[in-house]
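ugh ok fine here u go
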Amino acid sequence: MVRIMDQKHIEKIAAMLKTMAHPIRLKILCLLQDKELTVGDLQKEVKTTNANVSQHLTILRNQGIITSRKEANFIFNKIGDPKVIELTMTMKKLFCNED
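structure:
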């Protein structure tokens, strides 16, 4: 017997995937897999403005995908949900093979 996810789970997953689906946000999540990074660190890697990175981080934070902490004048961002780390690692495995 195949078990179908209930509607609330489907809606929650769809909202999370929709949030992650933007190319800049997906790249940010890939960068945050292994470590915490500041907006400046992310901006250098993503190659866009600090304001643009901040907007994308806000969207990810509002969805509960990332968290942040302040240390002195810096705000460090990290993925707050281990399931998101596992999902991004699985996507890398499935779609980013160099074969």
